[in-house]
Amino acid sequence: MTEFDPASFHALSIDGYDIADGVFRARYTLRTNTDDRDDVSFTEVVDLSGALGDRRPDDRLLGLLALTCSPSYYKAAAPPRIDIAFPTHDFERHYLAELIAGGLGEFAYRNSLPDALTPEVTGLDAVPASTGPDAWDPDAEPLVPVGGGKDSVVSIEALKRAGLHPTLFSVNRFDPIDRCIDISGLPSVRVTRRIDPALIEANARGAHNGHVPVTAINSVIGLIVADATGLGPVVLSNERSSNVGNVTWLGRDVNHQWSKSISYETLLRDTLRQYGFNPDRYFSLLRPLSESEIADRFAKSPQYFRDFISCNRPFAIDAGRRGATWCGHCPKCLFVYALMAPRLGRAEVEAIFGHDLFSDGDNRPGFEDIVGLGAHKPFECVGEYYEAAESLMAVLDGDDWRSVPLIEEFRSRRDELEKVSLSYASERAGSVDVDYVPPRYAAALVEP
């Protein structure tokens, strides 16, 4: 097997994109410093045919998708330059630069590649286009992405109670997502996305690898589907807690959830506005809520308890590595368990997860990390320290887990947990939260 040497590439070329019979293809090439025959080419494929039929998507959104998928291939070598081979506007190149800087923060941190966050982005200038008013109907029924976890369930049920009839949306087929869609009783559409197998092969030969802003990719795909099918806004379920990063590195905030944060939401909305679209085509319904508040609401939807899953294992790209249920050890499992334990009680959370995660001593370091007593916030989609700490203190105040050794250890550290909660209150004093939820949808968050 020939070694893949990231240092031998000087640029990623975003060669172009097309769509035929509902299948979108974006082409990328890593350019070498020497012989063109050593260049490595990739094609990203997104099959939209099942969602679009014979409708033609807006070319502006297709171009944006080609840009948004590029970090997956750029990171293989993280070269100093990205060349866009088709004409783009300054704001599109700015979008890509910001997507790299924020969306690949964790990748750069883990691989010690700070320069990977600041490639030069070049390309031909697009001719300014005159666009009329956006004909999009904000009152049309929304498109709601479903991830199989508690957050999208809370959005679905809130919208249903408000009298809305959303269409649910998913990328690729995963059992927890399909089960939640079935329980909702709502119509749904699915898109299939395939990363080029050549990238997997390159990773095996020494290419750089790591986390990419997947939510950004799915968001743009959702915008394409909603626009082409005459639906209303794409309504995400990203909460306030996703705005908080994991570590500060070289003066940068590194956030595993950057593409779920208000930073990306603002970037995408600004980009839509500069295309001539109404930015309210895209927003997160749950942005005003914390993970704790979402957990309170999810606890009122027992019909989903046995079917939702937030663990990453059932969503592995490689079907051979895909698990059927919660792994019981990863940060997402531990965070959701800690959050739901005082809200649902021991019998219920054990039934959901298959066993008691507090009774497994090996989970101690993981629980320490999520409550703020460990190294740093885990690189996963978990909430803030105070949320897990307050839930754990509620467990300490109850009787369900009394005498469980791990819980008794945390009981002896209650003062530390209280400091975490107090520190949060101090940090939040005077802070201003931003959200873009339109009034019609904000009303859906008001509980009866």
TrEMBL record:
<comment type="function">
    <text>Cell wall formation. Catalyzes epimerization of the terminal L-glutamate in UDP-N-acetyl-alpha-D-muramoyl-L-alanyl-L-glutamate.</text>
</comment>
<keyword id="KW-0132">Cell division</keyword>
<keyword id="KW-0413">Isomerase</keyword>
<keyword id="KW-0573">Peptidoglycan synthesis</keyword>
<feature type="domain" description="MurL N-terminal">
    <location>
        <begin position="11"/>
        <end position="285"/>
    </location>
</feature>
<dbReference type="Pfam" id="PF26298">
    <property type="entry name" value="MurL_epimerase_C"/>
</dbReference>
<dbReference type="GO" id="GO:0008360">
    <property type="term" value="P:regulation of cell shape"/>
</dbReference>
<comment type="similarity">
    <text>Belongs to the MurL family.</text>
</comment>
<dbReference type="InterPro" id="IPR058741">
    <property type="entry name" value="MurL_C"/>
</dbReference>
<keyword id="KW-0131">Cell cycle</keyword>
<comment type="pathway">
    <text>Cell wall biogenesis; peptidoglycan biosynthesis.</text>
</comment>
<dbReference type="InterPro" id="IPR043689">
    <property type="entry name" value="MurL"/>
</dbReference>
<keyword id="KW-0133">Cell shape</keyword>
<protein>
    <recommendedName>
        <fullName>UDP-N-acetyl-alpha-D-muramoyl-L-alanyl-L-glutamate epimerase</fullName>
        <ecNumber>5.1.1.23</ecNumber>
    </recommendedName>
</protein>
<dbReference type="InterPro" id="IPR058740">
    <property type="entry name" value="MurL_N"/>
</dbReference>
<dbReference type="Pfam" id="PF26299">
    <property type="entry name" value="MurL_N"/>
</dbReference>
<dbReference type="GO" id="GO:0005737">
    <property type="term" value="C:cytoplasm"/>
</dbReference>
<dbReference type="GO" id="GO:0009252">
    <property type="term" value="P:peptidoglycan biosynthetic process"/>
</dbReference>
<feature type="domain" description="MurL C-terminal">
    <location>
        <begin position="308"/>
        <end position="419"/>
    </location>
</feature>
<dbReference type="GO" id="GO:0071555">
    <property type="term" value="P:cell wall organization"/>
</dbReference>
<dbReference type="GO" id="GO:0016855">
    <property type="term" value="F:racemase and epimerase activity, acting on amino acids and derivatives"/>
</dbReference>
<keyword id="KW-0961">Cell wall biogenesis/degradation</keyword>
<dbReference type="GO" id="GO:0051301">
    <property type="term" value="P:cell division"/>
</dbReference>
